[in-house]
Amino acid sequence: MSFRILYQDDFMIAIEKPPGFHVHPPEDSNHPISNHFNCLHLLRNQISQYLYPVHRLDRATSGVLLFGLKSDSARKLCQAFENHQIRKTYFCVTRGWTDEAGQIDAPLGTSGALTSYSRLGKLELPHSVSRYPSARYSLLQVEPRSGRQHQIRRHFAHISHPLIGDTVYGSGEHNRYFRSQLLIHGLLLKAYSVELLHPETGEPLQITSRWNGLWHRVFDRFEVCPQPIKI
Q1: Least C-beta-crowded within 10 Å: which of 68, 94, 140, 159?
Q2: Active site residue 105
Q3: Which helix (H) or strand (E) holds 156?
Q4: Whole-number pLDDT of residue 26
């Protein structure tokens, strides 16, 4: 297994994380994972260099994943993530039609959390899924302004627009509809890009993911070719 490298220099590396892979082994040794699905292990072997994790993506989420290549650079990147100094842009598909744009300001656990979004497209299909006569969906660009666990997934479930493919907070009926009728599988959540100041040079840096066949099928359904916008 070799990852697509999106960016690399002497201090950091960014890869395209496929869905189904863990960033690193779980902290709880009672729940081990195979090294075949461990990004940290696989990327170390790929580049023959020690790595430092600096942030996380859910196992089911694909997209830009960063690692530090030096301990001091990794420390600075971790601090930038913790201080919300790194701008993260995601794309996702939700059940139902959301507002054209908005913010979800709802605490997650004991901590506040804020998520901004803009609707890029909407889709209505003439099939009854659940109790409604037709099936409606939204394609969104999303920016989490904080960094809570499962923040995007939990926030959209909170406003009754869960993400398609989300097996924890989502709708099984709509997930099955996408798999069986539209042949679109998996969690429709993509970590599309990160914007940051380089941890050593201070220069602005944008690292962008790549679309794959799954997302092209999504865009064909919505009849849009999304371009990231400032939200």
Answers
A1: 159
A2: no
A3: helix 151-158
A4: 60
* 213 SS3 class: helix
Torsion of CA 71, 43, 56, 119, to 10 degrees: 130
Q: Are 72 and 10 in contact (CB under 8 A)?
A: no
The Cα–Cα gap between 188 and 121 comes to: 14
Is residue 52 very low, low, confident or very high in pLDDT (cuts 50, 70, 90)? very high
Tell me whether residue 188 is exposed, middle or buried, using C-beta atoms within 10 angstroms of its C-beta: 0 to 12, 13 to 18, 19 or more.
buried
Could you report the per-residue pLDDT of 130-158, keeping only the tens digit for each? 888 899 999 999 999 988 889 999 999 99
Torsion (CA) 64, 70, 75, 81 in degrees, nearest 10: -10
Tell me which long-range contacts 17-20 makes (C-beta under 8 A, separation of at least 24). Answer: 17/57, 17/61, 17/62, 17/63, 17/64, 17/65, 17/191, 18/62, 19/59, 19/60, 19/61, 19/62, 19/186, 19/187, 20/59, 20/60
Side chain identity, residue 165: G
pTM of the predicted protein model: 0.93
